[in-house]
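Consortium newsletter contribution from the modelling node. Members have asked for a concrete example of what our holo predictions look like. Here is one, prepared for the pyridoxal-5'-phosphate complex that several groups have been discussing at recent meetings.
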Amino acid sequence: MGHSRLAGLKNGTSRQTGSAGSNGAAKGSAPSLLNERQFVLAGVHKTPASIMKMNLPKRINALVKLHGTPLMVIDRRVLEQEYKRFARLLPRVKLYYAIKANPHPDVIKTFRDLGGCFDVASEGEIRHCLAQGIKPNRIIFANTIKRPEALEYASKAGVDFVTFDNEPELYKIAKHAPGCRVLARLKVGNLGSIVELSLKFGADEEQMVPMLAKAKALGLRPEGISFHVGSQCTNMESYQRAFEQASRLVREAKERGLPIKMVDIGGGFPIRHFRSDTVGVETMAGQMRRELDRLFDKEIEIIAEPGRALVGPAGMLITRVVGRSIRNNKNYYYLDDGVYGDFSGIVFDHCKYEFRTLVTTQKYASILAGPTCDSFDTISLSEEMPELDVGSVVYVPNIGAYSCASALHFNGIPPAKVIVV
Ligand SMILES: Cc1ncc(COP(=O)(O)O)c(C=O)c1O
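And here is the predicted structure:
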């Protein structure tokens, strides 16, 4: 619990390899946010809709036949369902999808068409959103540390809504993006979250109102407060405390003549990776609704920046066994995707996944490894798996977030082809 994420790598932008070329990346100056050959737009891969209507084993076999493996399948119906569920459960909360979780153009367009807004972390992500037809006024630049050039680009492009958590950043914003709307990010407890973000981000409570006052003095528009309880947060208490801290700050700011218009409750909303997981957005939403209404006047706009919760459940990774051996008395299966690829979330996101197969025979203690020549590329040291052969399918549900977004080409092995169906 509470690991620090190896921040920066997770956006994929710091190590992308360029445009997706002939397989359908966004055209023009917008960079591809996934690796070359990785994503294939819906209009290009042409997966028949009938395949998605098949039962799961048939569907997987048909997809493997059509596309090969490894294959990341993002189900648009699930994206829509998760977005609508979130909006229904938290009707007061305006959604800014954090595209770092999965920047596939068709994912962004799906949320765009549902009226969504977007959270970006870099100039590359702004360009990418604009290339998908997102209006600049639907974007928040929610990285508290921004390159001066990125601020200048954002400002020219009409993205004038950013977060910050320190005074030097405010001077930078005032210089490179004058007049911007700013949210001050508060440091909040991340207990019970898998990814700890407060190690790196957020100002102490007592710094917040003075920083908002400073923003105003610098000609910026201090509009509110933001926080992030850490990613995959299953502890409602973390949200509760953060809401209470934010509510105190709203009162304090008002007393200092700084009326707060907005509270950004960040991301962190958990998903169920395993059948046995019990906590999800719906188990927390009732208390969240009540507490938001109790603590914040109706005039205060509440926004959120969910990433994982919107895209995680929509993704299924299909891999195949490409080698097997017995080592230390255990079955050792080598898959065609590994921790340098779409299982990179094991490293960067501290994520654990449920591995499923199409056979239901007796299970044995097994080890799953990736395809590269590195022993670090070990996916799981302890999985109960049926006897598998070279060619057997191993698939993983709920892996749409922080997976293909941080996948590499290490050893010349490309990550999974990503399709949105
Ligand atoms: C500023 C910010 N907003 C939103 C998110 C999305 O968080 P999650 O995927 O936990 O919802 C992140 C994740 O790192 C983040 O850093």
